[in-house]
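Action item from last week, closing it out:
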Amino acid sequence: MKRPEGLAAFAVIWTGQLLSLLGSGLTSFATVYWVYQFTGDATSVSLMALCSFAPTVVVGPIAGALVDRWDRKLVMMISDIAAALATLAIGVLYVTGDLAAWHLYAAGAFSGAFESFQWPAYTAAMSSMVPKAHYSRANGMISLAASATSIAAPILAGILLPLVGIAGIFLIDFGTFVIGLLLLTIVVVPNPPKSPESLKQAGSLWREVALGFRFVLSRRGLLGLQVVFLFMNLFNNLGQPIRQTLVLARTAYDPSAMAAVGSAMAFGSLAGSLLMTAWKGFRRKVHGVLIGMALHGLLGTVIFGLGRALPVWLAAGFAMQVFLVVLQSSASAIWQSKVPLDMQGRVMATRRLIAHAAIPLGMALSGPLADYVLEPAMRSDGALASLFGGLVGTGPGAGMALILVLAGLLSSSVGLAGFLSRSIREVDTALPDHDQVVGRVAGQTATVATGD
């Protein structure tokens, strides 16, 4: 039987990722709830997120260069195996009664290191399997998988936890990794030919890593776009890790409210994904990035912080995710169009490093800022209660709400500020697409050969 190629292969890989994300979503829900009950503070939850994310920043540039060297399908398979082993280890520790919060931190760091390889390999493979005209739609499908599983995961977690317990959740997650891995084995994932720019730096790993940085740094529009993302991610991640704990704090630890907010956000991601899949986004992709960023902060994060009841959180969470999908899909389409296929591993890793460099700082500050500064200050007799109490209320969760309001205002301001830079505004048109560069090189080569 002929193995799937092209769009069919991408659909098979996408199906495997859909199942894998569902299992990971179940585990994430269960572990956040367990950690917050076990420790009783937001710092532990944000630290768990930080440990999972930080390795993706540190390892990313080297991982991207290796992805361009190695077989991309093999890289994705190894990454899936590593994530499955981490889940299995946590499950065993839980069953034996030895699980502690630091085990989750360590497992998150281990999985995060391998995710540094998974993400550039997956995005680069997609670029080589999907026609350029469908990049926005393919990115919409990727977001669709994430959003659909985010809808299902909280609902299924609420149903399955009483039936199979946390140990059963870990086992289901492990099973989804295995299915995703098996689906990956049956498809053809092409490795693109080397571009002239890449061939010049071949041979030395460090030169290949440096090429990813030089590619971005020499293109002012792309660099400016990532600087915008850097600040947006810094401000957004002051609030992102504590959204769930805000809901728990203001609903007397009600897991159904936490699940409802998670599902509303997932429905927002689903709506945004369907929108991008059908619409393909703005003609000028950068408009999708900057407008989406501004609306994500104002109509999503700010309103979420101002809300004091479940209906407001549901509406704000929905809006937040719609605009997040729009801005992320638009940004990915820009990069996939501009970067040569054989360089996308290292360039995408560099792109991620620049945009995500400040995320660990935001995550690290989020919990302590809530627990030790703003939550005490926003008690009924706190230092800031009289100043901001009318805005976000007082008592449990008020300090976290204030963080979200400030974070949303700052991140939306960054998106609007992007319009002030000409190189960012014109990034769609000022830089040639990678197939246009190849076409020009091919034409020049043919002319030289005829002249000889």
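Closing note: The chain has one domain: 6-445.
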